Amino acid sequence: MEMHRTTIQKVFILTAILALLVAGVFAVLKTYERYRITPPVEVANAITVEVPDSRFQIPVIIDLDLLERYINTKLTGTFLTKTIFTGKSKKDEVQVRLSRTDPLSITSNGKELTCTFPLEVDATLVDMRLGKIFAGLFRPLHTSIVIQLSTPVDIDKNWNLVTRFRITGYTWKKKPLLHIGPFRKDMTTTFNRLIEEKGRKLTAMLDREIHKEVSLYATVADVWKDLQEPIIIKKKQPKAWLNFECTTLDASITLDKHAIICTTGINARMRILTDSVTANIIHPLPVLQKNHTAQSDLRSKISLYARSSFKDINEQLQQLLEGKTFSREGHHITIRKIRAYGSVNGLTVDIVTDKAFEGHLFMSGKPEYDTTTKKIIIRNFDYDLTSGSLLARAGDDLLHQKIRDEIATKLTLNLDSLISSIPDIGQRAISKSKAGKSIDMSIGELDIEACSFLIGRDNVHALIDATTELSIRIKQIKTGKAITITDG
Prior knowledge:
Blueprint: H1 2-35, E1 54-63, H2 64-74, E2 77-86, E3 92-100, E4 105-108, E5 113-127, H3 132-135, E6 141-151, E7 153-155, E8 161-163, E9 166-172, E10 177-180, E11 183-186, H4 188-213, H5 217-228, E12 231-234, E13 240-255, E14 259-273, H6 276-279, E15 289-290, E16 300-309, H7 310-321, E17 325-328, E18 331-343, E19 346-353, E20 360-370, E21 375-383, H8 385-394, H9 397-420, H10 422-430, E22 439-443, E23 447-455, E24 459-468, E25 470-474
Parallel strand pairs: 1-25, 13-15
Antiparallel strand pairs: 1-14, 2-3, 3-5, 4-5, 5-6, 6-9, 7-8, 10-11, 12-13, 13-14, 16-24, 17-18, 18-19, 19-20, 20-21, 22-25, 23-24
């Protein structure tokens, strides 16, 4: 009887234990079902990114002192010797010589150029109706005159500078008089007529010589060509090149106090190419389009594109984080596997740790560019709701935050290096025109003003809006032969 009671008790205890085990397993299964992690849905399709047009604003500057030196070299010494006949009978023969010894000067009022042109005037009476002997008694005349010239400035379709000089006035330093004792012969009217007559030839030749020698074609064509030259950005197969496909250009001429400024605008679109043949196609310089709109903002606004593949991102993440153990106050977690991918939640990271109850953990966030720090951040980067619930049950939130922050830092390394390389690539694209004897090219720092990210199946794409200031200063104008005004 006693033995039977003992057997019943053992059966009861075993049954109770079994019931507790079943209840425990059921509870675990219910908990697992409750906290089962569903990965954020991966982006299924690759995306095509349209890069907006860039607008390169390039002021090409011709300093007025350079134009001064050019004209002073072009017009130097004696450039007119002429015999004229005066008097009512036209028998008074005077030999006149015009020469420039003092430098001319050029100024600007913002609308036109003004040229102050000093001339030395020498005249000798060589014959007259009273005979050559009597004419020889007159002292040779020496005086000077300052001629004022003005011109608007424009540019033609072939990138040659266009001027239309005209005489706007002249001032005699000393009245032109031929003397013989108390007798004087006033040459003012005669010389004024000569200045007006030959002045038209002078201004026409100035216009012609400036138009012939002051050309911006080679300078602009070099920039146009250099923007289209491919820059290799990936040397491993499949290779990739970057270039700008130039479409249109325009120009406008303005004057400031010290320079002629031809603001050249080039519209272009950045491309990434994998075909070396296409990459080396250079479009010729098109016909110039005049831009009559005042350019108040001379900054170049450049739209750039970059991308980083998830293959590259994951190689870096795995190299830096797989096998790494995080510890805090006796708690340890080791990352076994890690993988980043594009999801409906943005940029998602799948982490497998050594904690069996945790399994896969997922964090998601959206990459953004911080214009203040010039760094990429992952906005709202955190564990998804279910991963967070499991970690909360495991305890030690600070350790899990440490893991999250470390992953966020490593996740942006590849993107940061990608974005930081953009200014260098951009400058390389626009700075291939080397400074030399003829030009100086100034390139300001490329400033990234905004950056947006698009996440596809295979890549993280970045669209970058950047600005910079460019300018080209002409250093040399070929002078050629000096101008001589022929008689006749």
